[in-house]
Fold this sequence. Notes:
Elements: H1 3-14, H2 18-25, H3 29-37, H4 44-54, H5 58-61, H6 82-93, H7 96-120
Helix pairs in contact: 2-3
Amino acid sequence: MNFAKIVKELRYESGLSQMELSKKLGITAAAIGHLELGKREPGSHTLIVYSKYFGVTTDYLLGLEDDFGNVIIEKEAPQLSAEELQIIENYRALNPSGKKLVKQTIDTLNSSSSSSSAKKYS
């Protein structure tokens, strides 16, 4: 999640309007609106104010950790080619025994590929 979604969610969970939160944080309601819409990025002062008020870390506000303090690692999903997408669609259309056969075939191909690579470097 990004800052805009996180702070909006925190405000909703607290049952506060943007105006009420603005008074508590000393930030204008317009600024809160822009932050929640993602039209403006928070500065360090804003991060600290939100962090102290809601009792969360700045890393949580920035979407770098979850609410339990676990670091969130976002990996960019690789883009699939048209051929790869077609293979996935075909796989999904298979019955369970067909899927099992495809998996076994892939495992066999991967293990024989690994074996031949190992022989090259021996």
